[in-house]
Structures are given as structure tokens and as C-alpha cells.
Amino acid sequence: MNFITSSQKPIEKVSSDDQVVGYDLFSSVTYMSILAKGGINRDRMLEYCSRQRYKTAVFFEHIRTMARGMGVEYTIAFQEVAKKAKAGSIKSLLLRFSSSISSGGSEAEFIVEEARNQKLEYSNNYERSVDNLQKWTDAYSAVLVAVTLIMVVSQISSLLGATSESFIFLMTMTLFGVTTIGVFLIYKVAPFEEFSYDTNEGITKNRKMSRFLAFVIGIPGFAIALLTGMLIYGATNDIMRSGSIFYLLLGFSLLPAGFFAWRDAQAIDKNDSELTIFFRGVGNIAGAAGVTLTETLKRLDTKSLPNLKIHIDRLKTRLISGLPSAESWEIFSTETGSDLSSRTTTMMLDGIETGCPADEVGTISADFAQNVTELRARRKLCSSSFGFLSLAMHITMSLILVFVVEIINNFNKKLEEVSEGLKGGVTESMTTPSGLQAPPGIALPSSSDLSVGLGLGENVQVGMMQLTIIIVIGILVVANALAPKFTEGGHNLKILWFMSLTAITSGIILMIVPTVTAGLLNVGM
Q1: CB-side exposure of 123: number of CA atoms within 13 Å?
Q2: How far apart are CA 42 and CA 111, in angstroms?
Q3: In this structure, which long-range contacts are made by residues 443-452, counting pairs with CB atoms below 8 Å and at least 24 apart in sequence?
Q4: 503/507 Cα distance (integer angstroms)
Q5: What is d(CA 212, CA 496) in angstroms, rounded to the nearest whole number?
Q6: Are 305 and 277 a contacting pair, CB within 8 Å?
Q7: CA distances from 275 to 199, 303, 473 (A)
Q8: Backbone φ/ψ region at 202: left (φ over 0), alpha (ψ -120 to 50), beta
Q9: Nearest alpha-carbon partner for 232 in 244, 219, 250
């Protein structure tokens, strides 16, 4: 039986995309470099690496099991596992590790050098992804505006009878396809990394509140919004008003959960920005004074760490009280809610446990945190501008679509009034004189013939067009909520924040624009 394919954690399930596994591979190699400086043997190093929650941990688990449980040489074990790896970066690393072992060189030096190379490779790949992301977000905005303008043209053409209903539906499906492809491409191009940290023991207060409000208010709010919109349409036969109520109720029901998700993301960013100072300070104090981590935290000045201070004080209290060190640090990572905090904490604790000098552990952990935060800051420049742009673009496109369809609606009402007036005027005032007969082969004009001659006898399907606009706005609400979230990254709960904003603005537009348009055109006066 092939152990690699029969394991409880099959290697085949690990992604073949180098970008997806890049963050975990960078973390794993950095973690290994700390263990290597501690001087532990190869078997223990693989054991520590296989315990981690990284996607790459399964490869080290299989290598160690093949070597220890099946008696396979490490060089062969690395080569066999490399054959099963789909990602080229992992395959290359394992083969280089096998060559280093067979050559008899220093494994510690090899791992430290690999950590440096992996840092450069990850940084370069990340920056390329951000550059591509910037281009694709610009393309998404441009294409979405173009398709929306085509829909406006199709609406205006329908007033003149130049287009059919099927063409408008076709343009709606085109808009759906373009937004779907655009959002998917942004998702694939954006750098893949973990921001938040969840455990079975607990999550941050903001994230817990966001999940609670999403289930308690968000899901029932969607059902209530849908039911209320249908009832209003049945009572008033006004599609725009019912759509406005639906989007407003939906947006406000998602707003509380979205707000706490947004605040949780802001807290994570602030905590991550201070990790570099924290771990560098801990490593320097512990290395210089030769004291334990508990004593180090007592001596650490937290005035320069305003965001982490409350979490550090709680950690210090737990350690002084005699609670287990590993559990106390795990709670620290959970309270910060940061995946980066969890990874760097694990590096520091395991490094000190395996005998690596505290100052070196602190330096490597701090450098890892600093490199990640600097790359994320570069991504933030792109995502923040696109977030504002997507909301502004959503408001503009929704306003144009609703404004045009309302112009058509009011113009159609005017045409009906004029047509009715002409028919009545012809009937009352235009009578055929007595004794007047039409020449042979020529018929006298009727009132209906006059109205058709003026082009006023056709009836535009305004209700169908209004329903189409409601559907199009719904597509834009979802697309312009997913696109900025994928661009920015983070927990999926952030989608609720963006969706609440796009839904509320859509509801306001659907409520105000029809009234303003009617006032501008003096309908009913």
C-alpha cells in the first residue's frame, strides 16, 4: 500500500497553485530556519514542522513517517513526496533538500539560506500579484461602465421601438457574465494569505458579534425585506418603490454585522503593525538578560504598543498566575485575532524551546512580521482606492440606470396623455360635413389613424424595464461587494460591510430618483 496516497491527510488535496501555498511555504521555511539555529536533529525538526497548521505541514508529516515508520532513507523520502507535490515551489524545495542531504553539507546552513531565498521569492511574487491586481481592478471598472452604458442605450432604443425585450434581457445576462468573470479574476489574481485567526476555543469579540448579528438580524432581515417588497408592490403596483424598500431593509439588516466585521479588520491591521516591535523587544530583553519570557514581559515597556498593550497585560497576568505557557500564548493570539500573531508566536515559543538564542528568535520573528506587514501595506494602497472607487462607481451607474428608465416612464405617460387628447379632440371637433363623400378609392382619416401617424400609438413596456433595472442593481450590489473584499483580503464577514453599503445606496437611489425625475419633467402638472 502506498502510504502517501492512503494517509488521512492526502497530499493530492494540497493546491497546485504556487500563489496559494506561497504564504504557508514562506512561513514553514522561516520556522525551519529558527529550529535549525536551535541545533535540533532532522527528525525532530520534521516533527515540529508537521504539527503546524500550514498547508505544507502534510509534506513533512509524510516524509517523517516514511523515514521513521517505513525505514526509507530521508533522501528517497524527500524525492518520493516531491513527486506527489503539485505545486512547483514545494516540489523544488523538497528536491533541493534531498540533494543537500545526499551531498553531506550542513543542513542548518542550507535551511537558513533557503529561508533567505524564500523571503525574496515570496516578496517578488507578492509584488507582482499586487501590480496585476491593480490592472485587473482598473479593467473591471472600465468594462463594467461600458456594459452599463450599453444597457442605457438599449433602454433608450426601446422607447423608439428599435430594440425588443429579448435584447434588454440579453444585455442583463451580459452584465451578469461580465461581473462574474471580473470578480473571479480579481479573486484569482489577488495575493492569497490569511489575515484572521479563529480557533475552537474562541474568536475576537468583534468577530463573534458580527457572526451573531449576521444570523440574528442579517438572515431574517433578507426574508423580511423580500416579503415587504412584494407586499408593497401588490398594494401600490410600484416596482421602483418596492425595490427601494427591499434594498434599504436588506442593507440596514446587514449593516450591524458588517460594521463589527469592519472594526475587527481594523483592529487586526493595528495589532499586526506593532508585532515587529513587540517580538524584537522580547527577543532582545530575553537574550541580553537571560531571563524567561514571563520575566521578559514584566520588563517590557508597552507604551510604544498602544494596540497590543491590553493583550500583553492579559498575557502577563496569565503567566504570572502560573497558567500553562503554551495555552496562555495561544489565548494571546486568539484575542488579537491575527493570523500573523499566531505564526510569529509559534516561531518564538518553539525556537526558544528547542534551544535557539532568544535574541535570534526575536530577530527572525520580527523580520518575518515586518516583511508581511510591509507587503500588506502595498496591497492596502491598491485595495483602499478601489474600495472607494467601486462604491462611487456603483452609485453612479445605479443612478444613471434608474434616471434613464424613469425618464422613459414619464415620457411614456406624456405620450399616453397626448394620444388620449388627440383622440378626444378628433372625435369632438373633427366631424365630416353633411353630404361630403370621399372620392372613389380614398378613405377619410380616423382619430386612431392620426395618433398612429404621429407615432404615439405604441406602448413601451416600462414595467418590464423597471424590473430589469431592479435585477441589474441587485447584480451590481453583489459584485461591488465581492470585488473590493477580494481585493483587500481578510475575513469573509467583510463582505457584509461592503454589501450593506451598496444595498443602502441602491435603496436611496431607487427612492429619490423617481421623485426627482418626475419633478424635473413636471409630471402631473
Answers
A1: 16
A2: 11
A3: 447/422, 447/423, 448/423, 450/422, 450/423, 450/426, 451/419, 451/422, 451/423
A4: 6
A5: 13
A6: yes
A7: 20, 14, 42
A8: left
A9: 244
Give me the long-range contacts of 224-229 (CB less than 8 A, separation at least 24): 224/249, 224/253, 225/249, 225/250, 225/253
Element housing 383 (H / E): helix 358-429
Q: How many CA atoms lie within 13 A of 192 on its CB side?
A: 15
Tell me what the pLDDT averaged over the chain comes to: 84
User: In the numeric block, which cell numbers belong to residue 506?
Assistant: 441602491
- Name the DSSP letter for residue 174: H
Q: Which residues of 254-291 are buried (b: 16+ CB within 10 A; e: fewer)?
A: bbbbbbbbbbbbebbbebbbbbbbbbbbbbbbbbeeee
Q: Which grid coordinates are listed for 351?
A: 525556537
Q: Could you tell me which residues come within 8 angstroms of residue 237 by beta carbon, excluding any fewer than 6 positions away?
A: none
Within 10 angstroms of residue 471's Cβ, the number of other Cβ atoms is 15
Three-class SS of 78-147: HHHHHHHCCCHHHHHHHHHHHHHHHHCCCHHHHHHHHHHHHHHHHHHHHHHHHHHHHHHHHHHHHHHHHH
All structural domains of the chain with their residue ranges: 3-105, 273-373
What is the crossing angle of helices 358-429 and 107-159, to 10°?
A: 10
Q: Which residue has the cell 500550514?
A: 54
Per-residue pLDDT at 38 exceeds 80 = yes
How far apart are the C-alpha atoms of 518 and 353, rounded to whole Å?
74
Dist CA 296 CA 323 (whole Å)? 16
Residue type, 47: E
Reported as a single tens digit per residue, the pLDDT across 135-193 is 999 999 888 888 888 888 877 777 666 556 677 788 888 888 889 999 999 999 999 88
Phi, psi of 338, deg, nearest 5: -105, 130
- Indicate the residue type of 367: D
Structure confidence at residue 409 as a pLDDT band (50, 70, 90)? confident
**210 is written with which cell numbers?**
458580527
Nearest 5°: phi and psi at 94?
Answer: -65, -40
Closest CA to 59 of 82, 26, 89, 31: 82
